[in-house]
Design a protein that fits this description.
The chain has 17 helices and 13 strands. With 403 residues, it is of the alpha/beta class. It folds into two domains: 170 residues, Rossmann fold (3-Layer(aba) Sandwich); 150 residues, Rossmann fold, CATH 3.40.50.2000.
């Protein structure tokens, strides 16, 4: 008995210490604090749409591009956002005005959903914790993603867990159909374009005060999987910045996750920051785009966001193999060892417009006319909910008939 009492005391002390840590400023932003909104427990959601985002603050770059589309949906079908980190919920609540709820445990979500009439759940990433929500069979589950690109990681066998995937353009559908075995990509995919681009804020270009042309360097991170490590900081970064120094104004836009896997990548990021004329970490990407004449980036979603600007870009040649890519067949590449100054000068004098560029936009983005993709997104959500209602009614009828 005494031993059991000691175990109980130790466990209570552990829980107390964990609770204090979660409430302290020392808890890393990459670790969910799991501070439940106690007042919401046992209370049904009044909304019929859930945005499930269990990842912490350092992944908010995945959700923010969807704010505009989610607000359009919220206007006609109110949305509740569910988090596991109260700090993330607080930021999103402040930035959007959405109803944001923090639930620490699966059981809490289970209790609330059992009381609610939620019809649609949306996801912007493939976090494994999504499965705490995906297990509910009364809801239609839709994967939105947070970027469409030619990265191999853009397609995953995890898409099979969702009822539908909303994709940008034909490129994404082709990529999924080619790469995911035993999956009917045509039946399970809905092409909506990129509503993320509709929400771009209006910005006034801030041109270089000394008249130099501006190059934006926006590489991706090192990635958690070596096979999709397309980031160029270690292979191109220092040489690129040195080659362009003085001749061009260089804006560096670092990826939020730079260095979370490899210390050497963080070191390369620090070197590039020191060499840049400007480091954009707190301005919208649209401002970085507007202020620049040329983009140098990696195989990533940044390439597709840049396409509608009609301005030239260079894409670094990855050190690892990459999937077949129509964009990489058309856009000039910067390989390791190339003279970056020559490549940039050549790209700046080339005309990036023309049929090939128009074809790329249509292939990757669908119809980029402002507002079209957002309208398609809302309509696709409504279609998904109607499909859910019919399937749910049929399932209940089968249950009532004992079949």
């Amino acid at each position: 008995m005494a031993s059991e009492a000691r175990v109980g005391i130790i466990r209570r002390l552990q829980l107390w210490a964990i609770s204090r840590l979660r409430r302290s400023r020392f808890l890393p932003v990459g670790m969910p604090d799991k501070l439940t909104d106690e007042s919401r427990l046992g209370v049904a959601f009044t909304q019929q749409v859930v945005l499930y985002f269990p990842t912490p603050q350092d992944s908010l770059y995945q959700l923010r591009p969807w704010y505009h589309a989610l607000k359009a949906l919220d206007d006609v079908h109110p949305v509740v956002c569910v988090f596991k980190d109260s700090r993330t919920a607080r930021v999103v609540r402040h930035e959007t005005g959405f109803d944001c709820v923090t639930l620490a445990r699966y059981g809490q979500l289970d209790e609330i959903l059992s009381l609610s009439d939620v019809r649609l759940a949306l996801y912007v990433n493939h976090d494994p914790v999504n499965f705490e929500s995906l297990r509910f069979t009364s809801v239609v589950h839709v994967y939105l993603g947070h970027g469409d690109s030619d990265k191999a990681v853009s397609v995953s066998n995890q898409v099979k867990a969702y009822d539908f995937c909303f994709l940008a353009g034909q490129a994404a559908l082709d990529r999924t159909a080619t790469s995911v075995m035993l999956y009917d990509a045509v039946a399970r995919s809905v092409l909506i374009g990129q509503p993320q681009l509709d929400g771009a804020p209006a910005v006034v270009p801030a041109r270089s005060p000394d008249g130099r042309q501006t190059v934006l360097y926006a590489p991706t991170w090192e990635a958690s999987q070596p096979s999709v490590s397309y980031g160029s900081l270690e292979t191109h970064g220092t040489a690129l910045m040195t080659a362009l120094s003085g001749t061009y104004r260089v804006i560096y836009r670092p990826h939020p996750l730079n260095g979370v896997i490899r210390a050497s990548y963080a070191a390369a990021d620090a070197v590039v920051r020191a060499l840049a004329d400007r480091v954009d970490t707190s301005v919208p990407i649209e401002q970085s785009f507007a202020d620049s004449d040329l983009l140098v980036t990696d195989v990533s979603a940044v390439t597709l966001s840049w396409l509608p600007t009609g301005k030239p870009m260079l894409v670094t040649t990855p050190a690892v193999p990459y999937p077949p890519s129509r964009l990489m067949d058309v856009v000039p590449q910067l390989a390791v060892g190339d003279d970056a100054a020559v490549a940039v000068a050549r790209a700046l004098t080339a005309d990036p417009s023309g049929p090939a560029h128009t074809d790329l936009i249509e292939h990757y983005l669908g119809d980029p006319t402002p507002g079209v993709a957002t309208a398609r997104f809302v309509a696709a959500c409504e279609d998904a909910m109607e499909i859910r209602d019919r399937a749910w009614s049929a399932a209940k009828e089968r249950g009532a008939n004992g079949t």
